[in-house]
Amino acid sequence: MTSTTIFGTGNMANAIGGLLADGGASVTYISEGESGTAPITGDIVVLAVPYPAVDAIIDAYASQLEGKIVVDITNPLDFSTFDSLVVPVGSSAAAEIQAKLPASKVLKAFNTTFAATLASKKVGELGTTVQIAGDDADAKATLAAAVEAGGVSAIDAGALKRAHELEAFGFLQLTLAAAEKISWTGGFGVVR
Amino acid sequence: MTSTTIFGTGNMANAIGGLLADGGASVTYISEGESGTAPITGDIVVLAVPYPAVDAIIDAYASQLEGKIVVDITNPLDFSTFDSLVVPVGSSAAAEIQAKLPASKVLKAFNTTFAATLASKKVGELGTTVQIAGDDADAKATLAAAVEAGGVSAIDAGALKRAHELEAFGFLQLTLAAAEKISWTGGFGVVR
Fold first, then answer.
1. Is 0.90 surpassed by the pTM of this model?
2. What is the pLDDT of residues A132-189, one digit of tens each?
3. Contact: B191, A126; criterion CB under 8 Å
4. % of chain A exceeding 70 in pLDDT
5. Nearest CA of chain B to the CA of A76: how many Å?
6. In B, which residues are within 8 Å of A173 by CB distance?
7. Minimal Cβ distance to B188: which of A89, A171, A190
8. Which of A87, A156, A169 should we substitute to test contact with B (largest number of B Cβ atoms within 10 Å)?
9. Distance of residue B29 Cα from the nearest chain A Cα, in angstroms
């Protein structure tokens, strides 16, 4: 059985945890208040927290994260302007996290799907697809299998370098939703 | 009636021209062989050529393009590696073109839709949506109206700065299609 530890207890944390639990995974949450003291028990660790909260988790858990699949779901927007990302130009949050956790298998996933589309498993009438980028093929396959077991499609979006494009995609989607040009139950879907 | 001049005679040129003609626009094409001699007659000018071919058009037509709506559809991939774009990191082809044509109203559009999805007006079972970014609201509205008259949805994707995200989106979509993870009749759709 896939075991998962999710940092965070917000909408995205709950949507991802619900999806993985639907697929039969064990899911444990570490809330903000527990972070730093609760142990990581899962083989897949999902950082379902805002990007500015990631560093404190890395600082507290770097050694426990060694060898683990670490899933970065963030859209690292500058929320003061909603007009740019806070990561270095051309880079990505996922690449920054991988650089800080060189012994972990960092994946970018879930940043292109709104919480509602993970929970309903639909983007409008279309089935939801989780895009996964990363440099470790086995880690990607493990996460994809856990997602698909829960009833949502997964697609291999390439190497971790593609996290730049996934974050641009997620950023664009957020700007459209914030401007009410798309709904939070819609957005960008993937058609095979 | 909207009048359109399309540079190029490839799949994208024909798909865009067909769509705009369906909406009642007049459409004139300038082929590679005619480029430099044939005059621009349209108010909307679509650069439906590969990104490396854009500069020659700008050199030949800069003065004729003043005041026009100039639509950049390119996905400026480095096709030797299929792993990065050839535009400066953080910038976009559209921003580069706007800098070279300061008196034109440059829009980014049609780079997130494959030719087949413009021709069929469907991404799988979903209606096709053209994303349009640009700094001139009237120009965006004019192009959006021409697209919608042809039976395809259009969405305002924000300022021309968002062309960076649209090009990342198009790049990602191309890598997935080239890897046969999505089909050329599918891809990323927009659900309102």
1. yes
2. 999 999 999 999 999 999 999 999 999 999 999 999 999 999 999 999 999 999 999 9
3. yes
4. 100
5. 14
6. none
7. A190
8. A169
9. 31
CA distance A165 to B14: 28
Find residue A158's DSSP bridge partners. Answer: A133
| Residue whose C-alpha is closest to residue B73's, from B143, B2, B13 | B13
Name residue, tokens 């798909």. Answer: B15
> What's the Cα-to-Cα distance from A138 to each of A135, A143, B78, B125, B126, rounded to whole Å?
9, 9, 28, 32, 33
Residue B99: both structure tokens together: 């800098």
A179 in reach of chain B (CB within 8 A): yes
In 3D space, the residue among A129, A130, A58 whose CA is nearest the CA of residue A99 turns out to be A58
| pLDDT tens track for B86-145 | 999 999 999 999 999 999 999 999 999 999 999 999 999 999 999 999 999 999 999 999
Residues in chain B: 192
* Domain ranges (residues) in chain B: 3-178
Nearest CA in chain A to B88: A90
Give CATH for domain A3-178.
3.40.50.720
Q: Long-range contacts made by residues B110-113, C-beta under 8 angstroms, separation at least 24?
A: B110/B12, B110/B16, B110/B46, B110/B48, B110/B71, B110/B73, B111/B72, B111/B73, B111/B74, B111/B75, B111/B166, B111/B167, B111/B169, B111/B170, B112/B166, B112/B169, B112/B170, B112/B173, B112/B187, B112/B188, B113/B187
Whether complex ipTM tops 0.90 = yes
